[in-house]
Design brief:
Helices cover 13% and strands 55% of the residues. The chain contains 1 helix and 15 strands; from the N terminus they run βββαββββββββββββ. A hairpin with a 2-residue loop joins strand 1 and strand 2. It is rod-shaped. The two termini are 71 Å apart.
């Protein structure tokens, strides 16, 4: 720094900052019109020098980080995979890059669910339907694929045959097995709706005090599950299919070739 008097009552200071190689980083001229000492000039130059040094330190730090990223060939921060916290202390990437234009899905966690539902279905007798309960288990065996075994127990909604005095209610007992493709909704932390598209079949025994027969069907089904929190969810399920057995039962009427069912239930998920 050089201080000189450029005019009566005016003092000026020329300040210059150089790096280790002797290159000029910054320079500044400060003037003072007071008649006092050079203290004001020294303070002004010192404050300016501190600002310049701070800017140089920030720039050097940014350049060092850039050099490290280039050396490690890391992508910019905004292009790195997003991570979702699934459990305390555990992180799982939503997806990852295998190369230009390719994305690899990370397999979801294995879970199983236990629940029960109320069902209403036809296709067991020529007239009326069946109402009952159906406990089930849903098990994840591959990425987004689940298997759903279920039991069925119910009774007829009306007496069979309806036009005779000795008519009676029927009972149904059987089971069903579905293989489903799970399509989770776009939500965070397992809060939202899941849709399962399934294919399967069922077998059941329909009986009364006087007669009994077997029933079986095959066809698609669909499950819509909404989580309410704490791994508890409500389910709506529908099924359509083709009757494999149409043998007459307590009536000469022909059984419908098609069967349909609707269910409403709840389940608890375990991870």
């Amino acid at each position: 720094m050089r201080v000189a008097s450029v005019a009566p009552g005016i003092k000026a200071a020329d300040a210059r900052i150089q790096d280790d190689r002797g290159r000029i980083v910054a320079e500044r001229t400060v003037s003072d019109r007071t008649t006092g000492s050079c203290v004001a000039l020294a303070r002004a130059v010192g404050a300016w020098a501190q600002i310049v040094l701070d800017d140089e330190l920030v720039r050097e730090h940014e350049e060092a980080e850039q050099r490290e990223r280039e050396a490690a060939r890391l992508p910019p921060p905004e292009s790195r995979p997003i991570k979702v916290i699934t459990q305390p202390g555990a992180e799982q990437p939503v997806d990852a890059d295998d190369g230009p234009g390719e994305r690899r899905h990370v397999p979801s966690e294995h879970t199983f669910e236990v629940g029960t539902s109320l069902f209403l279905r036809n296709g067991a007798a020529a007239t009326g339907g069946m109402f009952g309960v159906s406990p089930f288990v849903t098990i994840t065996f591959a990425d987004k694929w689940v298997v759903r075994p279920a039991l069925m127990y119910g009774t007829s909604t009306s007496r069979v045959p309806p036009d005779q005095s000795n008519s009676e209610n029927l009972s149904l007992f059987g089971g069903r097995l579905d293989v489903c493709r799970r399509m989770p909704g776009n939500y965070i932390d397992h809060r939202g709706i899941e849709f399962d598209a399934c294919m399967g079949g069922d077998a059941a025994r329909v009986a009364s005090d006087r007669d009994a027969t077997a029933r079986g069907s095959i066809g698609p089904s669909a499950v819509l599950r909404g989580e309410l929190g704490h791994n508890f969810g409500l389910e709506i399920r529908s099924m359509v299919g083709v009757n494999l057995s149409r043998a007459p039962f307590m009536s000469a009427e022909e059984l419908s070739p098609f069967v349909a069912a609707a269910e409403l239930g709840a389940s608890v998920r375990f991870r």
